[in-house]
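Following up on my earlier message about flavin-adenine dinucleotide. Here are the inputs again, as you asked, copied directly from the submission form:
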Amino acid sequence: MPPDWGSIPRPVDSRKRFCTKRYNPRKCSPQEVDTPMPASPDTVHSDAQPREKIAADITIIGGGIAGLWLLQRLCTLGYNAILLENTALGSDQSVASQGMIHGGIKYTLSGLLTGASQAIADMPDYWRKCLQGEGEVDLRGCKLLSEHFYLWSSASTTSRLSTFFASKATRGRVDKVSGKQLPTLLQVPEFKGSVYKLVDMVLDVPSLVRQLAAPLQSRIFQIDWQSAQFQRQPDGNHAIAIDNDAQNLLLTSSAIVLTAGLGNGPLLQQLGASSPAMQTRPLQQVLVKHRHPHGFYGHCLGGETTPRVTISSHDCGDGSQVWYLGGSLAEKGASQSSAELIRCAQQEMRELLPWVDLGDAQWATLPVERAEPRQGNFARPDQAFAAWAGNCKNVIAAWPTKLTLAPNLASQIVDLLTKKDIVPQSSSPIILPLKAPAIAVPPWQRLFGDS
Ligand SMILES: Cc1cc2nc3c(=O)[nH]c(=O)nc-3n(C[C@H](O)[C@H](O)[C@H](O)COP(=O)(O)OP(=O)(O)OC[C@H]3O[C@@H](n4cnc5c(N)ncnc54)[C@H](O)[C@@H]3O)c2cc1C
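Thanks, got it. Here's what our run produced:
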């Protein structure tokens, strides 16, 4: 029986058994993780044992937004593709994200039009079409949490912002709002700053994951790497040998695509790939469960060009809501203890929203890491990334770098396949002796589940 892809508790993270190095979410600076090294001879080898062979056109490893979006695109194009997930769909980053589909305005705040701002500018429109069932992927059924994202500034930063928002870089993508157009949370006499409405929108990511996975349920399997391993075949391609009580089989594919987020580093190492390398950027998000009636989706801008705090609101499943706090607070907070960070967050809320009483709120923090292709100086990558792995014939490693850019990532991967003449071949259903994974439970439900 496939699982009900609703709120199923997150299973034990089997990646912990699989990783060869520990991640350190407390470190503030980005980390290079699991620099690919030659694989040990017992992890990549050809197999003398006869096994049943099963051929997929493409095997995707990792079922976050990147893998699920890619699966949809490949199946629409006629590829016989499958996806292997080792934990729960959307674990790690996707379900822990703030769900913003953004047009990159926050990256233009420095006044420069960067690669990031150009690549991302069209994305809200692209996703809106998908939500209406008129895009490349049908997202009707995915829950929209907010049509807009707001950017608000304290009185001291207002004049710099007004000049910037009047500039060419943001034309048509930002509207100043006031009075009754303000988000309800800010419609109080105490509020003195300026508010801008961005074209960005906010999605409920668990419903996005469910919507992407549901039509392709028969192609999504849970893999336990304790009973599976990569094997290099005589033709130089990697295949996956799966041994469990039910069967011993060899899964061959024209291409294996790694979309495992943080898991890409260890997977590349297992494969003996010489490139690409991965970096991680640690964050510590803050969660506030409270009884204030208003949801809010916005960045508060302080003196820096990155938002001081970014707030999104999520349903806790018991009638209460959680404000999920990111931005600089979470970046700087990565090196703080949970208690220290909570104290900082409480202070921020008192300064920014003094009229909101959070006296009986519950607080928690979530250390989480962004996984990205390694950049010079550990810079923030501004585009989706996919490339053939060095020293491997049929492996692509990919990171979207942002939820918003998952569609761009899928297009890049389709291009890589097409350029290598990897076209749809087999059409017979792929039946593996593996069960279906659950969908990850979002942190606001996991952390406050029993309260
Ligand atoms: C706190 C936070 C907030 C964010 N907010 C936003 C936002 O508002 N907007 C935005 O555009 N972006 C945002 N991002 C970035 C965005 O979430 C990520 O870029 C995106 O979700 C990455 O998707 P992914 O599929 O590559 O990785 P993940 O979502 O991490 O998925 C990887 C999947 O692979 C699985 N896996 C791992 N190892 C293995 C293995 N060995 N075998 C099989 N499966 C494996 C994992 O279990 C997981 O399901 C945010 C990120 C964070 C951390």
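One observation from looking it over: Residues 6-29, 34-44 have pLDDT under 50 and may be disordered. Hope that helps, and feel free to reply on this thread.
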